[in-house]
Amino acid sequence: MTVDPASARRIERAGETLSRVREEVSRAVVGQKAMVDRLLIGLLTGGHVLLEGVPGLAKTLAVSSLAKSLSLRFRRIQFTPDLLPADLTGTLIYNPKEGTFSAKRGPLFSHIVLADEVNRAPAKVQSALLEAMQEKQVTLGDDTHPLEEPFLVLATQNPIEQEGTYPLPEAQSDRFMLKVKVNYPERGEEKEILRRAGLGTMPDLKPQATREQVVEARDALSGVYVDDKIQEYVLDLVHATRRPKDFGLPIEHLVQYGASPRATLFLVRGAQGFALVRGRPYVLPDDVKAVALDVLRHRIQVSYEAEAEGVDGEEVARRILEQVRVP
Q: Helix, strand, coil % (nearest 5) of the chain?
């Protein structure tokens, strides 16, 4: 394994920058280190992140704290059933005096966009958001406006309420690089939350990275070395979701559709991001395993038989990770 000295220096600088950002976020968010790491991976790779968890687990707080720790434009959009696509993208305003139209840009024209409770808005609004995520541009009238990099959508959704919600179709949720399950804090972490609540005020977070430093960290990502054996391991994982019988997995009846090639790309980039967050210039098999569930859980479509047995995409991915040989 050989890493270019210039790349190694960029990776080291990026690791130091990300470490400062993570430390600043931890001043406001107790625990949830895995969630914060995934947000940083999304920032590095340009992959959008969907956070799923019950209310009160600091999903919104983590995203807003990350934004405050960076010198980037941030907008929060509360998704509601009466939201319109123009509320996201903006619209054209008519000037009767001059007889012209001018573009009024919406909140999507930011670096970090928090789509809070994304499953509460109807399909038209979700489509407007997902188009911007995929194309990195917004069309207003006859003009197309590119979105400035870095552009990152961090969305949240509540899994326990179905009434008054519009669940993301599987094909649209595939646009999110990572789907992160946010869990309850540990007892010690919750005690720290209780202690901090007595302070009465949230800490004033300071920016720890400029836009230029974020762009530099993104550029450093391509220098993280991925060995050919790691690439083969990623291919084995993805192909096992499509043809599990080839890997000795008796779960073929549970899988309706396996993961797409997008999963292959995101597994490698996610593993590179995981290594870079730790300041390491190369990817280990454990890095792939660390992000595998987040990449695969929403990309494996299970059969009706699996649903009857209470097996979801995450459980299928977990069984594949246990079975496929690690290099």
A: 50, 15, 35
The pLDDT value recorded for residue 314 is 84
Measure the CA–CA gap between 293 and 315, rounded to whole angstroms. 9
Q: Measured between alpha carbons, how far is residue 314 from residues 119, 179, 181, 299, 318 in Å?
A: 20, 10, 10, 9, 6
Q: Give the DSSP H or E segment for 202.
A: none
- The SS3 assignment for 160 reads coil
Q: What is the mean pLDDT of the chain?
A: 85
In the chain, where the domains are located: 5-196+208-217, 224-323
As beta bridge partners, residue 282 has 225
List the structure tokens of 258.
């396996």
The predicted model gives 133-141 an average pLDDT of 83
* Helix (DSSP H) and strand (DSSP E) numbers for the chain: 13, 11
Band (pLDDT 50/70/90 cuts) for residue 2 is low
| CATH superfamily of the 224-323 domain | Magnesium chelatase subunit I, C-Terminal domain (1.10.8.80)
Mean pLDDT in residue range 213-227: 88
pLDDT in tens, 145-165: 888 888 889 988 887 766 666
What secondary structure letter does DSSP report for 74?
E
Please enumerate in sequence order all residues whose Cβ is within 8 A of that of 57, keeping only pairs 6 or more positions apart, or say none. 32, 182, 183, 184, 185
Q: What letter does residue 305 receive in the DSSP assignment?
A: H
CATH superfamily for 5-196+208-217 is P-loop containing nucleotide triphosphate hydrolases (3.40.50.300)
User: How far is Cα 297 from Cα 284, in angstroms, rounded to an integer?
Assistant: 21
pLDDT value for 271: 94
Residue with the two structure tokens 């079975």: 323
